[in-house]
Model the fold of this input.
Amino acid sequence: MTRRTLLRAGALAGAGIVAGQWWSPRSAAAASAGGAGDRATTLDMVVFGDAASETAHALTAELSDVVAGQLGQPGRVLNPKDPAEWWGGTTTFTLKVDPGAATYVSVKFWGGDCAPAVEQAWRLQIFLAGKVLGWLDQGSVDNIDLMDVAPRRPGGFYCHTLPLPLSATKGRTELEIEIRAMGRIWAYGPTVDKFFYPMTTPSRGIYRAYTHTAPHFQPGADDDFGTTAAPTTRPNTDADQLALVTDRVVKDQAQILYNRWAPTLDSYAFTTLAHGYYWPKSPAHGNPEALEKLCQAFDGTYLAWQDDDTVMTLDQGWEGFGRIGAALCLTWDDLQTCLDGKVTSGPTSLLNLGFETGDGSTLYGWGPISWANFGTFARDTTVSHSGTASMRATSSGKNLIVGTLSKAVTGQGSFTFSVWVKTDGSKDVARAGVAFTDSSGATVTSPAMIFAKEGMTDWQQLTATFAVPAGATQYTFRLGVLSGATVYFDDLEITAPDVPGATVSRRSAYRDMLLASREYWRQHQRSYTNQAMYCSIGIYTCNRALALLSPSDAWSESTAKSWLYQAVGLEPWAGSQDQAGDWTWPLGHAYYTVTPKGLSRELGYVADYGETSGILVRMYEAVTQGAGGAPDAKLKARMTTMAKARSWFRHPAVDPDGYRTVRIETQIGWRNEPYPGAIVYTQLLDHDSSPVSAAATFADPELVGCTQQMIDDGQLAPQLDTYLGTGLYTRTGLNAFLFVAEHLPAFQALPTSDKRLPAGSWDTPDFVFTDEVNACIAVKRGQEVLYSSLYFRARQAVNDMARVHLVSPQTECSATVRVTSVFDRDPDDVFTVQDWVTRDWGISDPDSGVDVPGGGLVPPGPALHQAFADEKLYLAPIPADVPDPAQGGTALGVEKVLVGRAPFYVLEYAGYIVAMNTAEDQTFTYRSTGSQRAVDLRTGEQTDLRRPVRVPPLSTLVLYDADRR
Done:
């Protein structure tokens, strides 16, 4: 039987051992032994910093200091090298292992330690007799510690546990173990120096290391892990923080409208401007200049695309020109006059020439010239030539020149300006003029500024006409004040020559962009859930705008919406289309990018990248907002299910200041996760998602209640710090705008809900959530929550490794542990673990042009070897209509969909027994090897395990046996 053959219906023992697993029959028995044997499986322990213990375990260290650690316990830190390198200090010691059973190693850390900044997120790695245990980045067996900017368990200790390969312990009673310190890894770094960052400060404290045979490590009674006090509620500071964010948003609007060069506005900036047109607090509100600038931004994108077609594939992400399509739909009814114009290379006029627009005394669009910044200027509403305001400028005795912050384009020919000036009548105190530049921005000799006449105290008009200097293509305007005078300026008018070559109509140009984008991306659809969503939004919004601009080029709404339905799992994922428009079905006709229960489907549970609620909001708004928008009840219901599915993966925690909060579960996530997870209630606040948008958009009582819980806990304001930062500025700015102007008001208008997160506190009711397609679980039992991914980072084949995370008010432990998988193993379908140490996979993505060799970048220093190298892993069977689970990837070790998930798993950990059937058409049988009775955590009823228990397709048996704790 090959992996391309579907499994027959079968019934195999949950504790059965199949040849070729990473562990022996004895190791299976050790992993599932009940009673006293399970509680007495600690083999050895070394206490770092304790001289007697270190001597007994032959401990040696380099670049390491003994420290007086937390709760009076000794420990060690590993120091950086001088000069700093990626590798830091190291400590080596011996610990006992079981010569026949599977052995685990656990290390004790202080949960209050964290990195002061992400640049100091150091790691610790275990080595066995000189070989790397697992992988340095995102392996199933990973770092023994990966520190992040938040503490995992303030006030107490925690352990992380990893399995030792049987080949390293077989026939041995002790093993040399080493812990090495490392610098930071930036997972997206393209080169060695951008991937491996040097370690510059000491590591976190290392307190104890243990070896044991049960997968769940329990410390002895004399091993103090600390007792933490119940957290209190953070004082609410929402009002102050919201005021700061609102101020930032208003300033962004002014900056985009008046200060930024329109042709280079990115898609986030022009989207912010489009929405600002409808927000009363924005200077763009109802402002025709904003609509013209919006089109000028589209023009700039069009001209850049004409010069370089990668603008559509690289600069715009996976959406292509989708944001242009969305902005066109949003502003369509108001944009018609601008759409009738021609594509321009830049603004043909300057903005706020009447000095009417500003915020109080702050004048928009004007600023001091750096070399002539001697004085002050302001918007003045007490003096004006016409309208309601003028610019008041006061020199401090030297030269003050105030200029436009934006620029405009000009052709060659006659240039005229006129400005009204009011002075005290002194000589040479006010002047005005133009500064010209060429297309590169270099200064071109410009006509001299003209001065106001002396002896006049009323308004006087300054005018000038001259030829545009040769080579000049752009200009700004400047107003000057001298000699300590105060001068008022108003009603500036400029007539510049037309720019030659503006012959392409905007409607035609935008149609070409949207059509090209839709046609390209329909043939280059992504497969990971969040990426497929972005791509589908772009395809849909391009088509929706085409339906307005050029109806003959547009698909039907139902055809376009199919891309969205596929992206949320309402329809099977059909992949890309070929040039003729036929679907390619790269993963067969029954593959969905979202599980039936609403989780992102990739290679297991996805934490941060699975937080797609913000993308879902964008997708729904793409359907409903603007000209032709309409609600879609089916789509909304599915999106609501997806947003609510994330709530199971929240657990009680404390914030860095010790206040009550909840965090997203990341320990079991397979893709580039931080530990601990971020503070998240309903949805993650990131550069594209706010904490309230899903509740505001879908108005579901559970989503609303969970969001209100965040506000009750005082945890909204701290998250808003993201909106006050400068990283990914226009992207964050757009998110901040939508939060302040649209989503927060909509959320605040919703009725109060008494719904709360399932594990939003330790006192909520027990629950069991299982997702068989993703092979993950979330279980609350009393004041304890267990999370597990039963096929953890199984990228090329079934690896029989699960990730677990067990948290309670007083304990936390995380681990990679062995599981039993059941399926027909084909000796012709195997993957051999390679001698790689950085990563256990390669990347071959033809569509994105990304090609990373298997194993990733080689770390600095001497060559290293992998402790798991040469292990044989079996590929799970996949549906017969799946042509290539690698989806075109050819690199050795490339990630493959489906081949790493077995049809049946059994996990036994900390008294929990999980028997999961991931198959759609088979029934399996679980037979206990240790427990006679256990509690079914779904029903609360006792289950007799002396008899086999049937596990139907796509179902999970979740039991608890206190005797096997």
